[in-house]
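Hey L., structure's done. Input below.
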Amino acid sequence: MPRPRTITDEQIVQAARAVFLEQGFSATTAEIARRAGISEVTLLKRFATKEDLFEEAVGLRDSAAWREELVVGTGDVRRNLERAALRFLDAAARIVPSLMLIFSRGHAPDHNPMLERLGNPIRHD
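Output:
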């Protein structure tokens, strides 16, 4: 029988958010686990990768909810687009400040797998 959980996923995410804000994306899962008061193994059982934890800590997982407003064949097209745009802007207003702070912490963009998951919006082609 497994031991009962002593820390919630939300508590881990809060610890991760604090560490990412202090150290940027280069923060280690070991440091996040230490801050949360758990082992790194426990952390990685709950969040398979640092990128998964980062997405949760910054709020990227919920950032695509605006797409729900893009309903095809239902309602007024203009109104649907306006609602989608407003939800997109709301999501961006919540997420962009954290992303700016986290990505400004001296990381090397060429070595950041999170940027690739986001489609590398800062790539200079």
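The radius of gyration is 17 Å. DSSP finds six helices and no strands in the chain.

-- N.
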